[in-house]
Amino acid sequence: PLPNEIKEEISKLLPSFNCNDYVKRGQNIGREKFAQVLESLGPNDCELEELKSLASSDIFWDEVRSIKCIGKVNDYVYDFSVPETENFVCENILAHNTLELPIDQLRQLGYNIESLKSRSVITRVETELSPDEALRTALRLGDSVLIVGEVRSVESTVLFEAMRIGALANLVAGTIHGESAYGVFDRVVHDLGLAPTSFKALDLLTICNMLRSPDGLHRFRRVTEVTEIRKKWKEDPLEEGGFVTLMEYSAKEDTLKPTDTLLNGESEVLNEIAKRVREWHGAWDLVWENILLRAKIKQTMVDYAQQLNRPEILEAEWVVPANEMFHSISEEVLREVGSVDSKLVYERWLKWFKDALR
Predict the structure, then answer these.
(1) 85 occurs within a structural domain
(2) Among 35, 89, 246, 266, which residue's beta carbon has the most beta carbons within 10 A?
(3) 139 or 232: which carries more pLDDT confidence?
(4) Residue 271, Cβ neighbours under 10 Å: how many?
(5) Residue 97: φ, ψ to 5°
(6) Measured distance CA(180)–CA(248) in Å, rounded
(7) Is residue 147 domain-resident?
(8) What pTM was computed for the model?
(9) Among 40-44, 149-153, 171-175, 200-204, which range has the highest average pLDDT?
């Protein structure tokens, strides 16, 4: 990876270089992108010749063209992570892995992050917790949030167990490879051995896929659907109406659009949430109005980030206080006028946001 000093020099020479991603956040620049950056600097920058050789050297970055499924894995699968560089050489291949959870950064934002050491699959020290037992221990730490990245093995059982018993009432979530709602069901049931009915513990599935442009030259990632998991099915949720799409991707408009099910207030998950809020119980119009208000606030942040060329506005340092201010203002307006007036909440939030940008 290029040292930050070099990336800082490039950012000075080229204003369009994404300083926030490559310098402040320390992300590595890809080979193709690096070549484009150097090309835009012009041929007269002789001091960059060494860097140009890196972009055209005999070190190659190959795209993974196919993935072969080896069936059910009875043991745990681990990711190797090297501090700072996140890279290591394995049989002449440079392997790269990103940091799963930026613990230091999350702690700086005020989150109480706790780590649990689990038993190594290699040494199998019996005095240490197994990964699944470590997860169960995490469930006993109180009313918090549990997110399991890359669900691949027996820890999936604990994840769904946490959902079924309602542990960690704020949120229990995980990521898993699957191109559709049924693809996720097929993965956890047939590959990981989860009982089909345990899948009902899921409330929502958000599917993100890699799409291609019509000419096939460009790829981009989009959220393609948000699916609700209904509970009244026995064997196959696809055949028995267990999957209900709430939002789906429109290729024509390049946006995620709500379905009639969502617009008409027929989401069982959202209605269950609304029952627990006095002002929303039996009032779908108010629920939908609040959803649109939250969406408007998020869109405002995106618009300002683009207009001001300040991508850091979309980072946690801005998003966290923006969310906190939204809830604080909503409570304030509720006390004043007896309801969460969306227009009033947005006006006050926007004033705070503009003041914070100065």
Answers:
(1) no
(2) 246
(3) 232
(4) 15
(5) -140, 140
(6) 11
(7) no
(8) 0.64
(9) 200-204
Identify the domain containing residue 358 by its residue range: 278-358
Judge contact between 218 and 212, C-beta under 8 A.
yes
Higher pLDDT, 10 or 340: 340
Q: What are phi and psi of 162, to 5 degrees?
A: -65, -40
Closest among 251, 199, 181 to 220, alpha carbons compared: 251
> Rounded to an integer, what distance in angstroms lies between the CA atom of residue 79 and that of residue 321?
32
Q: What is the 8-class DSSP label of residue 188?
A: I
- Does the residue 325 lie in any domain? yes
Token couple for 181: 């709602």
Within its chain, how far is the Cα of 306 from the centroid? 21
Q: Which residue has the tokens 């140009």?
A: 52
Tokens matching residue 69 = 């499924």
Backbone angles phi, psi at 115, to 5 degrees: -110, 145
Domain for residue 311, yes or no? yes
Give the three-class secondary structure for 318.
helix
Angle at alpha carbon of residue 10, lines to 9 and 14, rounded to 5°: 125
Question: What is the number of structural domains in the chain?
Answer: 2
Beta bridge partners, 237, equal: none
The pLDDT tens digits for 177-201 are 888 899 889 888 888 788 888 888 8
